[in-house]
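Subject: sequence -> structure tokens, single chain

Hey, anyone have a minute? Need the predicted structure for the following. Not urgent.
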Amino acid sequence: MFDGHGNGSFTEGIRFSTNSSRPIAMITADFDSDSILDIVTANYGTHSISIHYSRTQFRSSVTYSTGYDSFPVALTAADFNNDNYTDLAVANFGTNNIKILFGNRDRTFDSEITISTGMNSQPHSIVAAHFNADNSIDLVTANFGSREIRIFLNNGNGTFANHAHYSTGSALPYAIDVADFNRDKRVDIVVTAKGSDNVLLYLGNGNGYFRNPKVFQTGSHSTISIAIGYFNTDNRLDMVVVNDDIDNFDIFVGYFEGFSTQTKYSVDFEPTSVTVSDFNNDSRSDIVITNSDNDTVSVILGHDDGSFASEASYSTGFHPQSVAVSDLNNDGRLDLIVGNYYSNDISVLLNHGDGTFANQTRYLTGEGPRSIAVGDFNSDNQLDIVVANYANDTVSMLLGYVDGTFGNQMSYFAGSGPASIAVDDFNNDGRLDIVTGNAFSNDVSILLGHGNGSFFTETRYSVGLFPRSVVVSDFNNDTRLDIVAANTYSDDLSVLLGYGNGSFENQIKYAVGDEPRSIAVGDFNNDSRLDIVTANFYGNDVSVLLGHSDGSFEEQRKYPIGSSPQSVAIGDFNHDGWLDIVTANSEDDVLSLLLQLDEGGIIHMTSETSANGSSLRDFIFNDLNNDNQLDIVLVNYGTDNLGVLYGYGNGSFRKQQIISSMPDSRPVRIAFGDFDGNSLDDIVVANYGTKELAILLGDGNGTFTFQTQINTQSSSLNSYPVAMVVTHMNDDKISEVALIYYETDNVDIFVAQNRLFFANKTKYSPSFSSISIATGDFNNDGRVDIVTANFLSHDVSVLLGHGDGSFAQETIYSVGLSPRAVAVGDFNNDSRLDIVTANYADNTVSVIFGRGDGSFTNQTVYPVGDEPQSIALGDFNKDDRLDIVVANQDSDDVSILLNYGNGSFVNQTRYSVDSQPSSVAVGDFNNDNRLDIVTSNRKNGTISVLIGHGNGSFQDQIRYSVGEEPVTVAVGDFNNDTRLDIVIGNSMSNDVSILFGYGDSSFAKEIRYSVGSYPASVTVGDFNNDNRLDIAVANGISNDVSVLLSDGNGSFANQLKYPVGTSPLSIADGDFNNDTRTDIVVVCLLSNNVNVLIAYMQTVLDKNKTLLTGNGSKPMSLVVGDFNNDSIMDIATINSGTHNIGVFLGYNNISFTNQIVYTLNSTISPCSLAAGDFDNDLQLDIVFADCKSDMIGVILGRGNGSFGNLKFYSSNSNSLRNSIASMDINNDTNLDIIVTNQDSNSIGVIFGYGNGTFGSVILFQLEYGSNPFSTMFGDLNGDGKVDMAMINNGTDSLSVLLQTCSDFHG
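Reply:
Had a minute. Here:
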């Protein structure tokens, strides 16, 4: 025996011998009425029981025979004959019976009876309980031999009737226990057994009979013991069972089971609103409903069992739509307020206190009162009323008086069609505020109160379509009020989390049923988190969404109800401690009542298993969503995804949420880091299939966004990653990644970079055969618009931008025949953009003037040369008026049209260029502040430069050779020397030519960069916001866009290609979504669409450095740490091929010394490495595992990058595949060593003494065949102790071991 100190510790006390009795069971009870517990044992070896009395300090015992070969195995004690003395019942396995010994006043047992349990029944366990509510204690046995449980009902005098028996199927029952799992005040039975169906739950009917069992499987085939209790705070019974074949135990927890089939109650005509309260002060939930077709309100008083009295109806105004409840006259009785839609008023009915009400008093409101709320808005301690007026977009305020009467309304504007209203203090200033759900404007209005009955002007927040109901509560337990709206036409909920200052986050949407019209909030599963229920009008059901602690919700569960539910409310109608649901159904004139089920539901929670075929490779944990609970992220190699398990803080986790990766990515390694420098956790994943490192940026609330990773030589992984660590190798606060691969001889270092990408956001189909595109703000709304030239339909299409990357439908304007090019400028200086086209078929240009609202005048036409191909704009004569230059393909010249200033133009002047000019651009090439012209000349592979005189005339051309068949030209300063350069797209050599300007109208020899097939159009812009001009090219045959990013000195990175439609022939740029980044738009001739490519920056990882570990070294594990105490991170690797440890000392600039080698014995095959300060000298030490033996090696560090002697410890695992870690497991401030033994299915803990030495290993056995291969540590249940989680290769699962003192249980 052990004597308790009262603080959870014990001292060894009395030890007494049982000799050869072989006690197999023991219980305690007070057999001698001295109020002190005695001990009784069942002695399997001597076929007896022994009672050890506390009055003798248990030093002597009294023994009673249980019969020859009885083999007693179980005991229970109770007063079976109602004489106030404790009796004893013994289950005898060998003789198939129960022996009952009746206690008496002299502390002995003077009589006994024997009850048969059936032939070959072999009772293995026995329990006493009240099964039929007759005040006599009954018995139940678990009969191993006959595979049954048997019920013996007490006749009241200590005799028993063999009442009933229930099969356990193929399972052989071992242990039995009783409890009320479904809270119906009837005893239930739970049995553990040998076999696959090894946990069985029999729910009691309260009359000695039981329902068919609920069967559970643990994966064990021998579950021998059970204990029942409350393991969490949801007020549902949980249980733990012990499995002796796999040496573990399993936990089952009670869970929310949903709601029963509806019970219907007929009511008056067309019920539209329902509310629950106690109207007659009998502590029972009553119901009030509005009946819109007969202008009444009905009150239905509730009974204790969930049934109701007949309704009592009271007259209201016309077409009542809503009802609210409050004590309006401070008499302690709940009164009614009804909103009457057609009479534009409210009815107030004061309560008599017995559940009946006085006749209505009516007060005028706005038009179409749809919803009502009550509160004290002017701080006078009297309740006031606010009403949402659906028909005139207002809120009515009626201030209350002490006698339950109200003043005239005051009105405040809300959104369009306010259909619902709720009140609370959103900004924590002690003053009530208002929120309305605005059905027509698809938003909610917040009106903050002044505290005197008036309000600030509304602030609106977008929600879904037609929000018809709104409720206020704190969904994420942060003491700040949140809002939920039911969106009738988008079939969803919008949740807006509050900041506590009267403002709210953007909505988060959750799908519900068909046309939700009403919403209610309550804690249905008693987990201290608010849940939501909606009434779905066309779905004829309710949706229940269980809440999480972070303000998010599970997917809906639906329950059918009556026809066309208009309103939902909640209450505990049957007094069982669980919330129930009631709905008002307008089509069939009924109330539907759904009582919450409590059928003793339990769920197995021993381990969290990933998705089928997941092939777990790695995992990490941390608090991902800032709820102070540890969460887990799993790496699912087989299913190409990550699984996130959000922790509840009790060692259990939510259902796995999947983060999908790219197909065939095959993720194998994962780690946390901060890759964007915002101090929030991000994730990096090593993908073997796609040979890349993928980054997921975190927002701090549990949401992670994949960053696009283009696999280049600088980012590609060499081989299968076997280990990855993340650390800071310099002072930029951004994490770096170190990685080693299978059977290679190096460590790769990756650093985070911001890189430009484009998303092909939208496609638009303008008029037929669009061939050219330009951009500008045509309606002066600060948003970039698009115009296309449509070759075969002889018109232009104008698409006005919404500012989010999307565009309105086109508007078409006629121009000349076959417009081949389009440009945009303000020709008449009215601050409105105009449009000009070069018309190929009639040798003209068309000018259409903008009105500033996105519309345009009819065209004005001017003749130019033959087959005009391209157009550009500039002030060629320095008169501050935009002029036009056109490249004429068939006449081999350019046309200059000088502007008169009113939008009309002088007749053309033409200048010869080389053969077939296909494109023209404008710039000052000699820095004389006069615009010059350049054309690309298709036939001869040249460009022509025409230097301007500044008066509208030009010198003769200067020609430069470029690539094959140049068809497009643009200008810009690509090397930041303040001199304009030229870029040309060469259609047949599939490249661009860059000619750097000298600033004197001459140019250097071209430099070429490969692009896609048939570069048809080129544009210039700073796409990555680095103040360097980049190039984008539309490739007409490869159907993509090439982007070449500049390094600022005139050279460009290799192209990044983005697919678009078929035959992109023109390209332009602009900021289409107002994010300050330059986006791209292309027009695709053959697919007849416009593709918008939105620019965005992504964080990616590039390979920065490779550290060599030596030929044939084959590093298997690595760690980072400061091994030489210079506050700079170093790297250590375990090199299995060369039997050594390599250390690279860091320089703080992502550079390292050459490897320093620490040679081990050639017989050692090190495979796993960890680091820690094992001797508390503030210097890092190293521990490694040997995979040719079960030895663990410890090397103490000297603090200068060198290490002392090696000392070995045994892991006693007989496992040749091990991984190792260090952690202070027992909270003694000394680091311990943890070994994960894959082959022997165990975890070994070696406790450290704090001086560099360690004790013997303690092994914790895991499930047979689990093959654990990676372990992590943290406090998973909030008890201040370090717990373990490991992933298992054999069972493809995650196991959690929770620490109790210095032991672990899973």
